[in-house]
Each structure stands twice: as structure tokens, then as C-alpha cells.
Amino acid sequence: MAIRRGAFCAGEKAQLTDRKMDKITIQLVPGGYTQTGHGFIMHDDIIGVSEGTVITTADAQRTFAENPDSRQDTSGAAGTPYVRTDEFQDSIKPWRPGKKLGGWKYCAMRPRTADYVLSMPRGAQIMYPKDIAQVLQLGDIRGGMRVLESGGGSGAMSISLLEAVGSGGEVATIEIREEFARICKANATVFYGYEPSWWKVAVGSFDICCAGLPENYYDRIVLDMLDPWNRLEQAYRVISPGGVLACYVTTVTQVSRLAERLRSSGTWTEPEITETIERTWKADGLAVRPNHQMIGHTGFIVVSRAMACGHAALRKKGRAFKDTHTDIDSAASADGLDSLELRDMSDRKVRKVLRDLDGQVSQLHNPRLHAA
């Protein structure tokens, strides 16, 4: 995003925070206003002032008294301004009798990237900033790199990838749904103020779109889709040796299938699986404790690296007495559960434990113990 300094300008986003830490993110429109539960935020009160300025909401009388013929309401969910009509005043929410409108204070700041991502219009569910940060760090995505992304969604990950590689890099996004591709492009365009020239968006399936890409071209691949394990063959073809693959999945079954497919392919290193839990804290005098609400599980990040052609990935050998792959239902129906040796201890360890327990049980019948 272009670095913006100084006073707010028309067309850019402003984040307003009140004393309760409730936040509103709006796009500034000359002559526009945003309706809130505490009155009306006049955009002209923000345009031309610097960040950190405290603005005060207006009541309905002031709102319609100032230039009533051209006043625009931009409080809609999509943020699209529309010209006020004479019937608009009748559509104002029926406030409770005696409820004071206006006079509520907000602090105006430019939104951070994380703020923008969480407040932007979305079609598909976005990745949370905590997961995006892990993908960028564990995926080692840096300036000047070529990154292939599949699953653009609402553009949260795309914006972060564009920021990470910079104009000297290249990002290619593949999105199977055309409407999501449009949402993704629009959110990134509003974020930058223009459509980034180092970004290409393709609509279609991953395998079909990858078929036209050169081999060993991309440094990093980020997959955010339901079945990344079915895309590993094409991903390996277009990624360079040593390139990092980062997959974002949400369920344990997806993690299991992806990890096993990565291992069985022989072309990817042992997968690293992580989950990030985010918990905020309250610090108010002596009341220093975690907040009641937290962001728990959102998804898993599975990271692996591409092997050179002709070289198989090294695998840790499992112990012979453990079987973690045989399906328990098939084992029970065939040779019985004895064939499924899921044991955490060796036979020698089990015998030792039994000897110790037998000795302890025998002590219960010791006459000297009862005499005491």
C-alpha cells in the first residue's frame, strides 16, 4: 500500500475508535456521512485533518441542515455512497425516547493492514492475521520472490503476499469462482488505490491454470483450498527445488490426508504442522488478566519443501512394533485386534511394570503390614 502521511484525503479509509474501543472503518467521501448509534459521523470533519484527531458525531438536525441536497450516506455494509432523497429522513432508525444523538467522540486513525483485512467486504471466509503472519514467516516469503497462490477468496492473503514480495516480486492468484476473484481484486485495488502491476489473477481450477505455467518458476506456493493433497503433482512441477509449500486447512482430517500424501509422494520433505492460538490481555491497574474472549482454533498450517528432481525425501523410520496406518475396522474384521499393534510400550517394559505391580499387590497380604 502506498505510504500515506499527513492529513486525511477523500477516497481513503479511516478507522474511528471510541472510548469503548469499538471501531468503525469508513471510506471518506466529500459531503458524506455515516450513521451510527451515537449520531452521524460527518466525513468533512475528517477530510483535511491529521491522524490522531478526535472528532464528534453530529445530531440529525445538523446532518440535514448542512447541504441537504447533496448529502450522501455511506453507512451501508458495502460502503457504496448514494444520494440522499427526501424520504431518507423517514428511514432513520427509531431511536429510544430520550436517547441522545450526537456528541459522541471518536479518534480517527488510518487502518493498519490487519484492520483493513478484518473490516473489508468479504465473500469467502478470510484468513485471520495470526495465520497470515505464520504463513509469511514459516513460508519464508520475502521481497522479490515469485509466489503462486490458490484460493484468493476475499483477498486477505493476497494483499499480504503483495505487500511481502513488493513491486520487485510477482504474485499469481488462482481462484475457481469468478465472483470471489472479483471481490479479491476489488479489495486489493481499494487497499492500494490502484490494481498492483505485479499481480495476476486467473479464474479456473488449479490444475488447469497450472498447466500453462512454466516449470520450476515459483519460489513459494500458498494453497488455501479444501483438497490441497490433490494438487501436489502440479504444485511440484511449477515450484523450484527447495521452494516452500504452505497449505492452510481447517480440519484434522484434512491435515491427516495432506501429511500422508506429502510423505507418500517422495518429492516433498517431512511436513511441519502448526496451529496458532491468540489470546489478548487486559491490564487495568491491578486487574491484569486474559480477556474473556479469545481467537481459538481457526486453521492449521502445513509447510513442506520441494526436493530436487530424482532425489527422494528422507523419512524417519518408525519402530517395527508400532502400526499407525492400518485401519482399525479392517483389522478387527480380518485377523482381530491383535494384528493391530498400537502399543506405547515394548514387551520388556510391560513385563517390568507387571513385576513391579505384582510386588506391590503381594505387600498387601504381608502379615507384618497388618500387625503394624
From TrEMBL:
Q: Which residues form the tRNA (adenine(58)-N(1))-methyltransferase catalytic subunit TRM61 C-terminal domain?
A: 116-283
Could you tell me which InterPro entries the record lists for this protein? Answer: SAM-dependent_MTases_sf, TRM61_C, tRNA_MeTrfase_Gcd14
Q: Name one GO cellular component term.
A: tRNA (m1A) methyltransferase complex
Positions binding S-adenosyl-L-methionine in this chain are E175, D207, D224
Disordered: region residues: 64-83
- Which key words are in the record? Methyltransferase, S-adenosyl-L-methionine, Transferase, tRNA processing
Would you say which domain of life the source belongs to? Bacteria
> A Gene Ontology MF term for this entry?
tRNA (adenine(58)-N1)-methyltransferase activity
Known EC number: 2.1.1.220
Q: GO biological process annotations for this chain's record? A: tRNA methylation
| Catalytic reaction(s) noted | adenosine(58) in tRNA + S-adenosyl-L-methionine = N(1)-methyladenosine(58) in tRNA + S-adenosyl-L-homocysteine + H(+)
* The protein's assembly and partners: Homotetramer composed of a dimer of dimers.
Give the family, as the similarity comment puts it.
Belongs to the class I-like SAM-binding methyltransferase superfamily. TRM61 family.
The entry's function note states:
Catalyzes the S-adenosyl-L-methionine-dependent formation of N(1)-methyladenine at position 58 (m1A58) in tRNA.
**Which named protein is this?**
tRNA (adenine(58)-N(1))-methyltransferase TrmI
Please name the source species: Scardovia wiggsiae F0424
